[in-house]
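Before drawing any conclusions, I needed to go through one protein's amino acid sequence and its backbone structure tokens, quoted below without any editing.
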Amino acid sequence: MSDKVRAHVVIRGWVQGVAFRYKTKGAACEHQVTGWVRNKGDGSVEAVFEGEKNKVESLLKWCEKGPPMAVVKAVEVDWEEYTNGFEGFDIRF
């Protein structure tokens, strides 16, 4: 069994107005990762991902490119204690 992890992520660049949150939700569901994603006031996108380590790492790799219209400059990751606190993946407003 894989280790379960939690990643608190901030994605910077041209990441708002390009369907980043919606595509992240789709990618998270595809990778069987739970958590949430939202836009921040500074133009970045913030997310929390929970799941098996390899699946979370795969989703983080996806975030480095994002959807086709996005221009990702940086993906900042803080690894936190896994909480099993989510039933699915939500877009927060």
Summary: The domain at 4-91 is CATH 3.30.70.100 (Alpha-Beta Plaits). The mean pLDDT is 97. The radius of gyration is 12 Å.
